[in-house]
């Protein structure tokens, strides 16, 4: 069992930055791939970024490439999402999710993740 808690969301102006954190407790953190998803009002949840257990592999949605960076500190059982040059379209509830394997091709599928956090709201004003 893995428990995930997101933090770091808030209100920011377009062009600004935020760093989200996903703190995990439970089983060995480095065994798990972690992904960030987001869900905007009226839209389906979509993947933002994913990272393997060791941190050596990452993947990003096209919409955030070059602006967002996913990283992890296994000693702190935490994954981060650094979000720069934020746009109003980035407004959403952001969730982190854990899965027992990193999938380089299908990382975007919700079904590969077993554990989910409760989410943190990110609002970008224009």
- Name the assembly state: single chain
Helix content: under 10%
Global mean pLDDT? 96
Helix-strand string: EEEEEEEEEEE
Task: Characterise the protein shown here.
β5 and β6 form a beta hairpin. The protein starts with a strand and ends with a strand. The protein is an all-beta fold and 126 residues long. Helix content is 0%, strand content 50%. It has strands at residues 2-7, 10-13, 18-26, 33-39, 46-51, 58-60, 68-73, 78-83, 92-99, 115-116, 120-125.
Quick recap:
This protein has 126 residues and is an all-beta fold. Helices cover 0% and strands 50% of the residues. A hairpin with a 4-residue loop joins β7 (68-73) and β8 (78-83).
Produce the secondary structure layout:
Blueprint: E1 2-7, E2 10-13, E3 18-26, E4 33-39, E5 46-51, E6 58-60, E7 68-73, E8 78-83, E9 92-99, E10 115-116, E11 120-125
Parallel strand pairs: 2-11
Antiparallel strand pairs: 1-3, 3-8, 4-5, 4-9, 5-6, 7-8, 9-10, 9-11
